[in-house]
Amino acid sequence: xxxxxxxxxxxxxxxxxxxxxxxxxxxxxxxxxxxxxxxxxxxxxxxxxxxxxxxxxxxxxxxxxxxxxxxxxxxxxxxxxxxxxxxxxxxxxxxxxxxxxxxxxxxxxxxxxxxxxxxxxxxxxxxxxxxxxxxxxxxxxxxxxxxxxxxxxxxxxxxxxxxxxxxxxxxxxxxxxxxxxxxxxxxxxxxxxxxxxxxxxxxxxxxxxxxxxxxxxxxxxxxxxxxxxxxxxxxxxxxxxxxxxxxxxxxxxxxxxxxxxxxxxxxxxxxxxxxxxxxxxxxxxxxxxxxxxxxxxxxxxxxxxxxxxxxxxxxxxxxxxxxxxxxxxxxxxxxxxxxxxxxxxxxxxxxxxxxxxxxxxxxxxxxxxxxxx
Amino acid sequence: xxxxxxxxxxxxxxxxxxxxxxxxxxxxxxxxxxxxxxxxxxxxxxxxxxxxxxxxxxxxxxxxxxxxxxxxxxxxxxxxxxxxxxxxxxxxxxxxxxxxxxxxxxxxxxxxxxxxxxxxxxxxxxxxxxxxxxxxxxxxxxxxxxxxxxxxxxxxxxxxxxxxxxxxxxxxxxxxxxxxxxxxxxxxxxxxxxxxxxxxxxxxxxxxxxxxxxxxxxxxxxxxxxxxxxxxxxxxxxxxxxxxxxxxxxxxxxxxxxxxxxxxxxxxxxxxxxxxxxxxxxxxxxxxxxxxxxxxxxxxxxxxxxxxxxxxxxxxxxxxxxxxxxxxxxxxxxx
Lengths: 373, 335
Prior knowledge:
The complex is a heterodimer.
Chain A: E1 4-6, H1 16-22, H2 31-53, H3 68-76, E2 83-86, H4 91-97, H5 101-108, E3 132-135, H6 142-155, E4 162-167, H7 174-185, E5 190-196, E6 199-200, E7 203-204, H8 205-208, E8 225-229, H9 233-250, E9 254-259, H10 278-287, H11 290-300, H12 305-328, H13 345-352, H14 362-372
Parallel strand pairs in A: 2-3, 2-4, 4-5, 5-9, 8-9
Antiparallel strand pairs in A: 1-8, 6-7
Helix pairs in contact in A: 2-3, 2-4, 2-11, 2-12, 3-4, 3-9, 5-12, 6-7, 13-14
Chain B: E1 3-6, E2 9-13, H1 14-28, E3 32-36, H2 52-60, E4 61-63, H3 68-80, E5 84-88, H4 99-106, H5 109-112, E6 122-127, H6 142-146, E7 152-154, H7 159-171, E8 176-181, E9 188-192, E10 205-208, E11 213-217, H8 220-236, E12 240-244, E13 247-249, H9 253-263, E14 266-273, H10 278-289, E15 299-303, H11 312-318, H12 322-332
Parallel strand pairs in B: 3-4, 3-5, 5-6, 6-8, 7-8, 11-12, 11-14, 14-15
Antiparallel strand pairs in B: 1-2, 2-9, 7-13, 10-12
Helix pairs in contact in B: 1-7, 3-4, 8-12, 9-10
Enzyme class (chain A): oxidoreductase
Keywords (chain A): Oxidoreductase, Thiamine pyrophosphate
EC number (chain A): 1.1.1.-
């Protein structure tokens, strides 16, 4: 699939030279490093699928097998000061941003050492130290929040950008409209990366969207909208890099539509066959697998097969270590059930007294606090 | 405008007290900023933010499009990033389109991310009824929000509390909904501006001392109960104590229980629908905590269980007016 780019009227578009300069990638993608990340994510998710079927992972488990180039290409374009927010199909994002596979697997296992201390699970991974402000479980709910993260960056005068990933199913929510409108009228540095894998659960993009070419909907907000081949990690990286750079420098929000495909169902509980043919899935698996495409490019560039074997071996070792770590990590103690509802531990004590049948005591606690202060 | 009555004590309206709190916090903490519809050059729909735009400028007093889900969500994101946004929802009725951001997002962030990120967000908004604004603009939903762990809900009844609770809300590290009341904006009261005046969230107040009956209320219902307490005293010789809850979440049942232990009778009053409401919660807790103290079943008064009608006669009939409170109080007292 050719990379197509469509620009709408914008401040930068009226200055052609500036646009050309802004679109030069700041740094080329290290394809071997990208393959390393994609391989880790692929093997990690295959392992998560096995562990889910063994009932060691609960809840929902949304895999993104087949979408690794989209994830890695986009995340590789982030700079350390940038922020990332995603939907609930999020394992790959945490791993690509550098969160340890152990912490992610422990979270899927619901253990104390998980990256959200076992409170979030698959849909709510987080790594604030790396600017990953969460996987969010309500479709399109993260979009307005991403605008607010960018707003805070602007208010503090930081030269940063926010990458907000969403699925194609999110673009028909009101939050999409409100978030993009606010980003545009306030000139916020947010790149909305729509991972278009063709299906919102089992509903096709054509069925759900009056304008199924989602990047074109950016025009309604006078922001650039581009479409890129999401199976080509270098293409995704180049497009995301350019848009993120413009976001940082010109406070220009944008829509990046990343055309990709999930080889599995909506979640592990969905076989993914009721609404699409086996031939279609097989076609993508055999001809458009992003790992195979990247591998071919590396071989053509003269990288030795042995080096690629080492990539797979090291990724498998990391995944095995992640499972061992998660398995050894304890379940959170039930004594900690009510921790983290509120920030101030003294407030937690107040709220503990709100349990039905616990009649009184807030005033007493506050009096103690005031004495202590 | 505010007028000085004693050293450091000024008489001002509830509206002015809220404005003073925002002014003081904007001056104190550069991470505080306001956002909302028409809070800038328009000076706020109910003029609560009047003058702040002129003094602090568009970066600190940020006007938003009509886009509650969008800007409340943006406030959540900004709060997660270390800012302290104070978002004004023009009236509580409009918060429903932002409910997902308030309940599913703001309230959950700290817990579901394992305590690593908080949301120091304030949402302030007027509610209430009584101006023939009909079904979609005459509602009191604070009980809904008080149901949600992760949120805090305060509902000041006086100018001093309006200032003090809003300040506490802005300084709190978690999301706080500050429920104001349309009928109270013009109410006047004394505010000691010589002190910081923060009122801790989670502390009720005995608004009037009494010995025969405890009236439990919050926000504008406190005003109604104080009038009823005077009538009870003057016309029936009944001494009613009025407890102003101030905070609905957390709820200070200790103050309520101490009062009921003294009076042995309780009537809970609210402006909202009573079914599944604030009075349902408080009455249940009184029944548990004060079972041995009670001389009569706990009474409750709320708004009629209808959407608010337009006609004045019907609106009056729907509201928890003082006559209704009085009659319920007499029933609890067996008088």
